[in-house]
């Protein structure tokens, strides 16, 4: 069983929770903590993941700060539409520091769940700053393809861009599985899709975007990015597939 993912975490402020959990700044009492954990165990079970009791603290912290999400900055280069539908956008994301963790579980969705579990602890005070760092969106998953070009490698990197406050002085992690990495700017072709993210649905989106774009030597075909924005309580939640330009 894998652990909780970003998509599960973002569900903390959906209609399944009472507003008093997210709006009340006072510490939760034991009943509230138990109710929150029970809720997450129920949500996680539908995704074949598990939430251990020791995650209660980080979940509470993220719940209280669930409305404070900083969007990842980018420059929009172009937008391509057909009959009013946005087919794809081309963007440049800036250089900066990312917190990254790689897992290689049996399923893609398990790898990103396990990876984000570790990032969640880092965000919630298990860092050299000793405080809640804040959250940026989207959280991304870097996928590498096997030689056949159709199958995902088991190792999936889950990463989030450090909030602007910490870009000049990144906090250090206490978990050796997490690395703080400075990355150069990246130029991507991005297409929005809605629904769940697993190997089947992501593979379908990769094929679809290639059909739209046609053969292009300027785009990598050995690596893709999935960007997650919304929670699983939304029936048509927003994600993006990113194709990576070989150069800026």
Automatic annotation (TrEMBL):
| Leader sequence residues | none
Transmembrane stretches in the record are none
The superkingdom of the source organism is Eukaryota
Coiled-coil residue windows:
none
Name the Pfam families for this protein.
Answer: SOUL (PF04832)
Renumbered to this chain, region (Disordered) spans 7-31
Q: Which GO terms describe its molecular function?
A: heme binding
Q: Which Gene3D superfamilies match?
A: Regulatory factor, effector binding domain
Into which family does the record put it? Belongs to the HEBP family.
Q: What is this protein called in UniProt? A: Heme-binding protein 1-like
Tell me the organism: Stegastes partitus
Cite the source lineage. Eukaryota, Metazoa, Chordata, Craniata, Vertebrata
């Amino acid at each position: 069983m894998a652990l909780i993912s970003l998509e599960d975490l973002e569900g903390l402020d959906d209609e399944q929770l009472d507003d008093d959990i997210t709006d009340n700044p006072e510490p939760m009492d034991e009943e509230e903590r138990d109710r929150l954990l029970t809720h997450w165990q129920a949500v996680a079970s539908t995704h074949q993941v598990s939430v251990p009791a020791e995650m209660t603290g980080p979940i509470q912290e993220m719940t209280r700060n669930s409305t404070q999400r900083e969007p990842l900055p980018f420059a929009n280069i172009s937008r391509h539409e057909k009959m009013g539908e946005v087919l794809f956008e081309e963007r440049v994301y800036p250089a900066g520091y990312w917190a990254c963790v790689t897992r290689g579980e049996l399923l893609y969705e398990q790898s990103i769940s396990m990876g984000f579990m570790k990032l969640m602890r880092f965000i919630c005070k298990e860092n050299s700053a000793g405080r809640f760092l804040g959250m940026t969106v989207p959280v991304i998953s870097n996928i590498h393809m096997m030689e056949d070009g159709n199958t995902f490698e088991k190792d999936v990197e889950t990463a989030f861009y450090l909030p602007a406050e910490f870009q000049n002085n990144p906090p250090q992690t206490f978990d050796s599985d997490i690395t703080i990495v400075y990355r150069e700017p990246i130029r991507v072709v991005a297409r929005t899709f809605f629904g769940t993210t697993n190997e089947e649905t992501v593979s379908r989106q990769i094929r679809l975007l290639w059909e739209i774009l046609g053969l292009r030597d300027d785009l990598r075909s050995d690596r893709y990015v999935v960007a997650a924005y919304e929670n699983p309580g939304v029936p048509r939640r927003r994600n993006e597939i990113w194709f990576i330009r070989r150069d800026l």
